[in-house]
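Progress report, Aim 2. The chain analyzed during this reporting quarter is listed below.
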Amino acid sequence: MARLRQLFCDGILQKNPHLVRTAEEKRGVEHLHMDMVVNVSHAGHLNTLIHNVCKEAHEGFYTRTADTKHWLDKGIEAIEFEPLPQTVDVSGLQRCPSTLDLWQPCFCSYHLRLEWLPCLLKYCRSRRGVAGRTKPYTCGIRSCSKGYRFDYYVPHKQLCPWDEET
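Predicted structure tokens for the chain:
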């Protein structure tokens, strides 16, 4: 990983910073169900950047149960986690684009695709050596495109303006 980071930082970005890059590999979409809310005022123990990045989220930000378990296993206890309603627990709860009433609770989705990120080292084959065999060597970084879909509960549809069916 250190070698990948070194190649990425030293090589690719500095050589042609104006170049628009395309991914060599397009990976699928990872679906993440955000079922917990973290109280922002008590989240500074997780990371010092949370206060700056999430300062507009006055009440809290969404995360997954697996993440909260990880933080609790690490000994971070001064955080307030609140579970959100689950799909199974709330009968008749729809996705927000299907909900007609602006004040009705629903499940919102946010889609994100990272179009270019380093994902693997790229190996090339060298010329035949003394024994007549080719030997692979690192010659760059393989780039990937990766998508994410975040689903989470909102108390009313107005809090989900970006999730519209097209």
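Helices lie at 2-15, 50-53, 65-73. The mean pLDDT is 77. These observations will guide the mutagenesis work planned for the next reporting period.
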